[in-house]
Structures are given as C-alpha cells and as structure tokens.
Backbone:
C-alpha cells in the first residue's frame, strides 16, 4: 500500500513539473524568434516606408502597401512569444522590460495598435504619397511608444 502511494506521488510530481516548467531552451527560442520578427521583418519593412517618406527612394504604392502589410502580420504572433521568465537579464539578448508581465493587457493593446496602424498605412498607400506619409508617421509613433514603455536597451 505504501509503495502504491509513493508511486502515485512520484507521478503527480512529474505531471506538475511538466506542465509548469518551460525549459531554458524554449525560453531562449522564444526570445530568438521575437527578435527575428522585429529585426528581419518589421525593421526592414519600416525602412522601405521610411525611405519613401524621407524622399530618398521614390514613392511606390505597391511596395509601400506590401511593406505595411508585412508589418501588420507580425503583432498577433509577436505577443505569443513572451513566456514568463524571458525578461531582460533572465535570458541573454532579451530587451523585454519586466513591465510587459506587469501589464500584459497593455502590452497586447499596444501590439494591436501597431497592427491597426500598419493596416491603415497599407490602405493609405493606395491613396497616394501624402496619405501614406501621414499614416506611416502615425505608425512609427506606436513603435516608439511601445519601445519606451516595454523595451529596455541593453547596456
Ligand atoms: C507592442 C510593442 C512593440 C511595438 C509596437 C514595436 N516594438 Fe519593436 N520591440 C519591442 C520589444 C519588447 C523589443 C525587445 C524584444 C526582446 O528583446 O525580447 C523590440 C525590439 C525591436 C528591435 C530590435 C530587434 C533586435 O533584437 O535586434 C527593432 C529593430 C524593433 N523593435 C523595431 C520596431 C519597429 C520599426 C516598430 C514599428 C514599426 C516596432 N519595433 C514596434 C516591442 C515593440
């Protein structure tokens, strides 16, 4: 009888362990993936739009629209890549402020703002350069807002 109890306890312990613990590799992979989205998708797409707004590259409605659509595809997957334990200092290369987990709804709402603002910039591109510039500048304010509140720059 005692032996049966012991076995049951061990199994219960294993079950709790596997549901709660996320391995260090999984945490590192989440940081890597979210950095990839910002660095390799959002930043280059924002540069495509920014160069047109600055006038260093001629305005091209189709290219501008595509770049903004690429950005609007990111936020939904992005907010899923913030498991607890991946804040700055906990995982190498993380620049995520602990504030994200103190106010996860606020963080998600800001990500949703990026999705809306980039979708708006994508449709504005079809209306011409002036409309695009205005919508693009509104979008970049969302980048700045989120970084100021939820990102810590590595020293
Ligand atoms: C909802 C919040 C949020 C929005 C909106 C946002 N970012 Fe970020 N961004 C972050 C966070 C948080 C990090 C740091 C993530 C990490 O290190 O784990 C980051 C990191 C970055 C990085 C550094 C990537 C790296 O690891 O080298 C770049 C570049 C970047 N963002 C560009 C942008 C641009 C451009 C926009 C707007 C088009 C934008 N971001 C909008 C939250 C946001």
Residues:
């Amino acid at each position: 009888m005692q032996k049966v109890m012991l076995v049951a306890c061990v199994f219960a312990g294993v079950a709790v362990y596997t549901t709660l613990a996320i391995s260090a590799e999984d945490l590192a992979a989440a940081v890597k993936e979210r950095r990839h989205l910002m660095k390799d998708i959002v930043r280059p797409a924002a540069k495509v739009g920014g160069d047109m707004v600055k006038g260093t590259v001629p305005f091209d409605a189709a290219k501008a629209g595509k770049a903004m659509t690429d950005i609007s595809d990111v936020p939904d997957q992005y907010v899923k890549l913030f498991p607890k334990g991946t804040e700055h200092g906990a995982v190498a290369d993380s620049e995520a402020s602990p504030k994200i987990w103190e106010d996860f709804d606020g963080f998600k709402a800001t990500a949703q703002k990026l999705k809306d603002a980039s979708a708006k910039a994508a449709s504005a591109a079809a209306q011409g350069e002036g409309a695009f510039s205005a919508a693009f500048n509104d979008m970049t304010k969302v980048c700045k807002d989120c970084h100021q509140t939820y990102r810590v720059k590595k020293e």
